[in-house]
Amino acid sequence: MIDLPRHNANFCAEHLLQLCRRQVDKAIHDHDMFAPDDRLLVAVSGGKDSLALWDILVEAGYRADGLYVGLGIGDYSDASGDHVRAFATERGLHLVEVDLREQYGYDIPTASRATRRVPCSACGMSKRHLFDKAAIDGGYDAVVTGHNLDDEAAVLLGNVLRWDVDHLARQAPVLPARAGFPRKAKPLVRLTERETAAWCLIRGIDYLVEECPIAAGNRHLHHKSVLNAIEEESPSSKSAFYLEFVDKMAPLLAGRSAADAGELTTCERCGAPTTSEVCAFCRLVATSAAHDPVPVELVLGGRGRR
Length: 306
Prior knowledge:
Strand content: 5-15%
Strand order of the largest sheet: 5-4-3-6-8-7
Shape: globular
Order of helices and strands: EEHEHEHEHHHEHHEEHHHHEEH
Distance between the termini: 48 Å
CATH superfamily: HUPs
CATH class: Alpha Beta
CATH architecture: 3-Layer(aba) Sandwich
Helix content: 40-55%
Structural class: alpha/beta
């Protein structure tokens, strides 16, 4: 049995799986994320959320392939890649792989040092660009990511603390395709980390337990801990905070992001949509690929800024 205070109930294995399926189905239906016959590209990291999501979608009959991006974060990336490949091989699923060092001449520790920014900044930018590129090049209808309720609530808290209207306007469970960008969807927004971990345990999915070693100090993790403390005292506060935002505030912010207001052109190097002659990803590649490789040990603990 697993106790889920936010639902005020205990669940056996069978009913926990039913809960997860219902919550994912509801998210997909309520937000019109994608159609039953759409081709989906699931961004997988080897962790519980992305592998659980891929498993849920395949079980539900969706045509879902995986996308793994090798970030070059030492043993952590080696282990994450092994978990993803094992999952795909055991189930006969198609996996698309992109390796930053092999294909673009840099990795995340090197990008952090070369740009003098925290590792998560270079990592996020790289993944967003490569997710979009892989989806468009592969003719997929949507990129699907494993962001769960805990993730989205933590991001929302950070955006609210800064009243970052641009980011708030784009924090939706689904972003429609536009001007060279594929549709993006987050079917796990109604499930917590604990629930996706339980799904993996029941389904026998071997996932990478360790967190990224260079993410320590990330504000996102602090916001998660704050929300967890609130949730401990008042179960379901986290889901109310995020889901009420989606229902009541997100519609009022539609069209308010800088991306909606700005005119896009085409990157002269890669052809991706951008607001300047050269997109941010290509500038990152140029700076990072020219830098000598940096061992992951030099940026451990989120100390990428120098």
